[in-house]
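Now for a specimen:

…
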Amino acid sequence: MRTTSTKHITNPTLFKEQILYWSHQFNETIILDSNVESNENQLYKSYDLIIAVDAFTSIQTDYEKAFEDLYQYQSKANDWLFGYLAYDLKNDVEHLQSQNFDGLGFSDLYFFQPKKIFLLKDSTLEIQYLNMCDDEIDSDLEDILNQSKIKSPKSNIEIKQRISKENYIKKVEKTLAHIHRGDIYEANFCMEFYANNALIEPSEIYQKLNRISDSPFAVYFKKNQQYLLSASPERYLKKENEKVISQPIKGTAKRNSNSELDEQNKVTLQNNAKERSENIMIVDLVRNDLSQTATKGSVEVEEFCEIYSFKQVHQMISTITSNVAHTTSPIEILRTTFPMGSMTGAPKISAMKIIEDLEETKRGLYSGAVGYFTPSGNFDFNVVIRSILYNSENQYLSFSVGSAITAEAIPENEYEECLLKAKAMFEVLQVN
């Protein structure tokens, strides 16, 4: 079904830029960048860079019976599939709904079977083309290596805040009231920043965002006029044969240019009782989610509240794994764990109902997941955070940030954490 060719790439960094420019000609593009030079300590790495372009087949649907439809599509394709699961697939998994404003118009689920795939590891490039177009491998590679930077129009953006600081604090206080009543233990409450009449060159903004973040789960995604530009540091879920891996993030601290103060920030985060309690609650939630498909006694916490440092922030990350029977459908593993606990709260269903009432924007692809399935049924998905979403047709741009509200939360501090997480997006959009 696919023809495979292997090439040597002398300058992988330059190749990343060139293939991004080359991909502009296609309606469907996804680039997954691990930024391996900056993320050597990342567990369970696969490829340094994955690029897939040009849909041969695809599936696009709203949340109704979405996982069932995806199961049928993935089972029959028996091939690489790339795409996303939007947050509102929660309405397929549970009796929930989404009535909030949506300026972006992304479908709830989208996957495509690409005609052309590139898999880069160190300096070795593996090219996989469907047989129908395998005669284009050499000419495409020559075209890629001759690409140069695209001239882009000057960005024109005026960012607005959907929820004012005053209103944000009131909403966090309402969340705390739910926690003190015992309705929930924790909720991930998010707010949107947005721009109408926004003119940007998505590939240029993505490159800037990736350059200042160097995150291990960066994504450039294009489907016609819809774009995701992501600097996500978080893995949602990965399946390697019979092993399933989840790596939730809970706990954030700022970086400091002074190395001593930076190290002090790391130690403070490691010992912060509030941040640790957030992480522990989500670890318990993930263990419970994974147990629904795990073989008996196989759920393990491999890393507990470890501190990882990225260019913009320090993060507290745990790694939870399980084993599954080889007969277990990959779609069932996703369905029983989605949405990821780090973006909802605990207990999950109660938290999702409460944040739906308090938030003023439909999350859509934000806090969903982007990734791929392999022909053997393995998969790897990130969490869509630290991301800019853009619809070039209606010129609507959006990015959202959130924080975990627990009983110890101080509303003012949670607001400051949101601004810290938004810093990179403001910087690349050149908004002061």
In short: The two ends are 51 Å apart (CA to CA). Residues 25 and 54 are 9 Å apart (CA to CA). The longest helix spans residues 273-291. The first strand starts at residue 2 and ends at 8.
